[in-house]
From TrEMBL:
This is Transposase. InterPro entries: Transp_IS110-like_N, Transpos_IS110. It comes from the Bacteria. GO terms for molecular function: DNA binding; transposase activity.
């Protein structure tokens, strides 16, 4: 049986990339440097990826977004304020977009 296509949310920081996949629920973290990004691309290529959503972080997201796009994945870069506003609207007090918020945001985007 073929696994369903995945939506991916990535929270970007200077040191790490926190990754969440839906509907599998898989979560993992890689270093935000060339070796970590290569590992991320390799892991995501084992799935059928529908869309990757990356939070804009002052340019820190560009290398990973470019690598994923070069690997043939569809990328959306969202304004971090949109993620925080979504978290607040969902009743969560979030300074950053957590995996739980990614789960809800991706579920909503899948329906549109």
């Amino acid at each position: 049986m073929q696994q369903p296509s995945q939506w991916v949310g990535i929270d970007v920081s200077k040191a790490t990339l926190d990754v969440y996949l839906r509907p599998s629920g898989e979560q993992f973290q890689v270093a935000n440097q060339a070796s970590g990004i290569a590992e991320l691309v390799k892991r995501l290529q084992t799935f059928e990826i529908q869309q990757v959503i990356v939070e804009s972080t002052g340019g820190l997201e560009l290398e990973v977004a470019q690598a994923l796009q070069n690997a043939g994945m569809a990328i959306s870069i969202i304004n971090p304020r949109q993620g925080r506003d979504f978290a607040k609207a969902s009743g969560k007090l979030a300074k950053t977009v957590s995996c739980g918020v990614w789960r809800s945001l991706i579920a909503l985007m899948q329906r549109s």
